[in-house]
Amino acid sequence: MFSKAVVNFVVLAAAQIAAASSCTRTYTVQSGDICDSISAANHVSTYQLAVVNYPNIDPGCTNLVPGSTICLGNEGEDCQTTYVVQLGDTCDGVSSMAYVNNTILYLNNPQINADCSNLYVGEVLCTASTVIVPPAPGGGSSTPSSTVPVVPPPSATPADPGYSYGDGGDGEDDLPWCE
């Protein structure tokens, strides 16, 4: 049991060292932090925070440890132009407000589904005018994979009150990334 814990620690430490080699900004987790509050305070999108810390932060962002250091952005892939989603926001509205077209908004935030129905209040979006999104781990592509889930917190309020998260009646979880 102890040797398994040591092996897990060594693997985690090696992954953090590898990730730190290209990390240009870091943050020390405080008690009470959640991924969206860290993202908003440090101008980093929710998606970017999840990708650059994959797999060290779990999909629900429930395993943050006060005192630990996480990466906020990697060299050349660090979007610092962000917007925090408010009640009633739509992709068209966010694009218009940020002076970017929808294509760029979707490319920088690949967790947004095709009809933009999965925005939630407090989610932090990259609103840069050029594509800066880090690639999803393992694929080298900016298209998210099922290995990098960005899941709204259980208490998340949809930006569009007519939409609810979870099983949309189709037997599939309606998770916030393009399928």
Description:
With 179 residues, this protein is an alpha+beta fold. 27% of the residues lie in helices and 12% in strands. It has helices at residues 2-20, 35-42, 46-52, 91-98, 102-108, and strands at 23-28, 69-74, 82-84, 124-126, 166-167, 173-174. The strands form 3 sheets. Strands 1-2 form a two-stranded antiparallel ribbon. It has a two-stranded antiparallel sheet with strand order 3-4. It has a two-stranded antiparallel sheet with strand order 5-6. A hairpin with a 5-residue loop joins strand 5 and strand 6. The longest helix is centred in the N-terminal third of the chain and has 19 residues, at 2-20. It starts with a helix and ends in a 5-residue tail after the last strand.
Class by alpha and beta content: alpha+beta
What characterizes the major β-sheet? Answer: 2 strands, antiparallel
The overall strand count is 6
SSE sequence, one letter per element: HEHHEEHHEEE
Q: What general form does the structure show?
A: globular
Distance between the termini: 38 Å
What is the overall pLDDT average?
79
Tally the helices: what do you get? 5
Kindly report the spatial arrangement of strands forming the biggest sheet: 1-2
Strand content: 5-15%
Whole-number radius of gyration?
Answer: 16 Å
